[in-house]
Prior knowledge:
The chain is α/β, with parallel strands linked by helices. The chain folds into two domains: 2-117, 3-Layer(aba) Sandwich (Rossmann fold); 120-290 and 324-337, Dihydrodipicolinate Reductase, domain 2, CATH 3.30.360. It contains nine helices and 15 strands. The protein has helices at 11-21, 37-43, 73-82, 97-110, 124-134, 169-185, 251-256, 294-306, 314-333; strands at residues 2-7, 27-33, 48-50, 63-66, 86-90, 114-117, 141-147, 190-196, 207-213, 218-223, 232-238, 241-246, 275-279, 282-286, 337-338. The strands form two sheets. It has a nine-stranded mixed β-sheet. Helix 3 packs parallel to helix 4 (97-110), helix 4 runs antiparallel to helix 9 and helix 6 (169-185) crosses helix 9 (314-333). The chain is globular, with a radius of gyration of 20 Å. The protein starts with a strand and ends in a 10-residue tail after the last strand. 41% of the residues are buried.
Amino acid sequence: MIRTAIVAYGFSAQTFHIPYLQIEPNFLWSHMVTSKPEAFALNHPDISVVPVLADLAFDRLDLVVITSPNHAHFEQAKYCLEQGCHVIVEKPFVLSVEQAEALKAVAQRWQRQLIVFQNRRWDGDFLTIQGLIDNRAVGQVKRLVSRFDRFRPEVRSRWREQRGQGTGITWDLAPHLIDQAIALFGRPDTLMANIRCLRDDAEVDDNFEIWLDYERVQVVLGSSSFSAGPNQRFALEGSAGSFVKFGLDVQEGALKLGQDILDERWGQESDEYWGILYQAHQSKVVTTKPGNYGAFWHQVALCLEEGAQSPVPIDDAILGIRLLALAQQSSQQGRRLSLADDDHTENA
């Protein structure tokens, strides 16, 4: 049994972590760190709660899940690793390549697992794209467009939209898209980005476009705060055809509504959102594979208890931070950057 604590009782913990830790048989969620312990105890009276990380009973824990604001990830993850616990960190992992490499070194020194919660590797639409690529349904892949658009034309009062370290839409949504690109194609050769503040009274960026160029493939990642209509999620193009998919994975919406994770229909998308595969003389609807965030937690259990591979290799997570840092630099400088020329880029 993996004795587990969660740090911070916000949207991420309540939506993506607690529901799974309550049902996964290999985990025992026993401790919580939150600045509002009294309010938390009303909802979870059986969980031991403390107001600050230093008060955790680390001798009774195996794993700490960090869901606090982005700027706190590095110090909190480092502290928990040094107390002898495995650590899961919400995305974005940390805010610089130096921090990422430092945490990897600490984890190795203490012989503990450091895992980044890149849950969208288990989105149904991404699993569908992955399958189409593996089966060469579009032939040799030439181009992938991957977008996470929303209609939020007005600035909201929340920390992600206020000035500070790790705020803005690029730190919020680009980690998902970049990690998926890494999972599919690995490390790109060059990167170019355009990151903008377009909303009235915006304090941080709310739109981005990032171009990743590989030897034979171009990947275009983007997010807009002004997309009110149907949102294209993926467009995959290759030598034998193309595939277009609209709409986001259904799991986050289902988790917000408190739907049953154990339902046999979990993660299944309505057929109205299934994508279409276009080939030279025909087209067909492609059933979206069921999404399954539970697979992340299952692989974590195998990793911690049986020594299996991490669900998100730490070097993938470090590369993701490097690409985020390069995107910021590219946008500021207005030029394409080569990964080969800059192996130690800091976040600008």
